[in-house]
């Protein structure tokens, strides 16, 4: 085999690998350390070789880059990107980044002389104005939003004029025009400028170049609905409905709902029923179902009401029920996840939707229950059975409690109690609600023992029920234990910080305990929650009055009369405070307002009469004292005041007639007889002797009566000292002693207190105005000062 193998010889001229080790000595790097020229070039700061005597040439026969040939350097074009340029001459520094040239010159601004550029800038400005208008509207600054929208409209019209001059109509930006007009119309609506809004919408709708302009007829219908122009609203809704395709299903349903509402507003219930029934057949929802029930209720169709109610409770809610939030194992990760999603935004939306559905169903049941059957109780039972057959089973108990509430409104307390007592064996939540209502009923009936029992049952069934705790506090408060009542109210507030009843009652408890600062804190918190509550405002004024701060009390009462401007008690209280402060004019104003709304308040009448006497207008005081005499005809005091006003105003004849009338009604009244004696004497009348005789008899009877009263008091005092061993006489003797201290049978009984029976009448009128003194008047004045029994005229306190 080896005979055919011929080894290569060294002298073979056809060597395939020859020439590979041949290279240009210029590229030899092994001897660079000994190359003087290279070492000198490396040490120089210029990074260049010293000029060589020989011209280097490339393999192609051309000069090497950077070499000098005939005094001209070949440019280094291959390294321009690294900073080497043709301009680099000897003596220049190595600066590939161009730092020696300094900072770059600023960019030249683009000239805006061209019309196209100007229009682009104007279009940008219009868009910015529209955006600013929308932002201002979202921030609540409606006036600024409208101004920006108008400015955008002006700028857009200017843009149209300029564009029409240089471009064909096809180049107009229709989207920008549509946006500007739609925003302007929306801002007009927001500012309740409906006529301008309708005009702007008409511009959009009538322009055939806007493909979707017809949809805006819905907005026009909404404006007419706000203006209560229901026929036009229906017209535009129907026009919009014709232009919206069936692919926009939800929009069509909303428009049909608006049409149904407009028909309800006009009383066309049959047409409204057609709209809502179409909605319930296509895409049933709670609002349309509830409105359908209202329409059937309005026309009185009981069978259709039942059918519509069943359709309402069958509307799918499309929410997951709370079972998904219940953990079925002890996995920590799963429990944390469930806790996180239990109160997220989606679960809140689900709860709101469920709460809205329950409100619609409860309201509908309460509405139709009395109308679908012969009695409301039978109607309620039908509604309860229907609800129990649906997925709203828990609403059945609430309906039963509402049934009891309806019995209460009808003042059928026995039926209400029977209905509520049915819940005593139900689950804890329903039992607590029923027991709370029962406790409240017994509390209103002043049966505190039963109220306390049911309040305890309500609290034991559900300790976290704030209403039950509040009722329990009320029963304790009624028994006089304000400290314990306050504890129950505070526990109710810990369970529900917005329980206004508990907070109000806690303030009352603190007020009763004379803890004024804590009571004030409670009512101030309550005022922040209920700023227009008349009861809260009154309690705040009362507390400041207790704290002897009349200015603050007046401020709160002024806020109170802005809420209840016709409350006579509040107005009289304001008058009293101003009177205490010495402001008679304001006091007179508020007392007059109080009298205008309730002309039977004796305190107000007395103050107004005294005010007119104090200002020397006795004639005007007569009106008020006559009204007081009508209100209290058995009290001689007010009739004597009327007669005294006549006397002091100089009308002696009317005064004499009035005293005679009083004497006929109250023949034993000493004060009336004294004035009759004086007037008859001064006027020279013959009846004077008769009245003198009667006066003496009356004074003697009065003296005997006073002695009897005095002896009776002394006897009762002695009996108390002797003790209970000796009762001080037989039953008949005690009865006769009681009779002795009562007024005579012919004397009208004026008061229940002995103090008022003893007291003699003092004329409450002030000093008389100065008048020309006749002889008779001079004698009367002299008699006034000479007669010590009459004493000085006094003003009522």
TrEMBL record:
UniProt keywords, alphabetically: Cell projection, Cilium, Cilium biogenesis/degradation, Cytoplasm, Cytoskeleton, Flagellum, Repeat, TPR repeat
GO process annotations (BP): inner ear receptor cell stereocilium organization; intraciliary transport; kidney development; non-motile cilium assembly; regulation of cilium assembly
Compartments, record wording: Cell projection, Cilium, Flagellum; Cytoplasm, Cytoskeleton, Cilium basal body; Cytoplasm, Cytoskeleton, Microtubule organizing center, Centrosome, Centriole
Acidic residues bias locations: 782-797
SMART domains per UniProt: TPR
GO molecular function, one term: kinesin binding
The UniProt record lists the keyword Ribonucleoprotein: no
Biased composition (Basic and acidic residues): 706-724, 770-781
Region spans: Disordered: 42-70, 93-114, 706-797
Biased composition (Polar residues): 54-70
Statement: the UniProt record of this protein carries the keyword Manganese: no
Annotated Pfam families: TPR_1, TPR_12, TPR_6, TPR_8
Renumbered ranges of TPR repeats: 214-247, 253-286, 500-533, 534-567, 568-601, 602-635
GO CC terms in record: centriole; centrosome; ciliary basal body; ciliary base; ciliary tip; cytosol; intraciliary transport particle B; motile cilium
Top-level taxon of origin: Eukaryota
SUPFAM superfamilies with a match to the protein in the record: TPR-like
UniProt cross-references to InterPro entries, sorted A to Z: TPR-like_helical_dom_sf, TPR_rpt
Subunit structure of this chain's protein: Component of the IFT complex B, at least composed of IFT20, IFT22, IFT25, IFT27, IFT46, IFT52, TRAF3IP1/IFT54, IFT57, IFT74, IFT80, IFT81, and IFT88. Interacts with IFT20, IFT22, IFT25, IFT27, IFT52, TRAF3IP1, IFT74, IFT80 and IFT81. Interacts with IFT172. Interacts with IFT57. Interacts with IFT46. Interacts with IFT70B. Interacts with C2CD3. Interacts with ENTR1 (via N-terminus). Interacts with LRRC56. Interacts with DZIP1. Interacts with CCDC38. Interacts with CCDC146. Interacts with CFAP53.
General function of this protein: Positively regulates primary cilium biogenesis. Also involved in autophagy since it is required for trafficking of ATG16L and the expansion of the autophagic compartment.
Protein name, entry field: Intraflagellar transport protein 88 homolog
Species for this entry: Serinus canaria
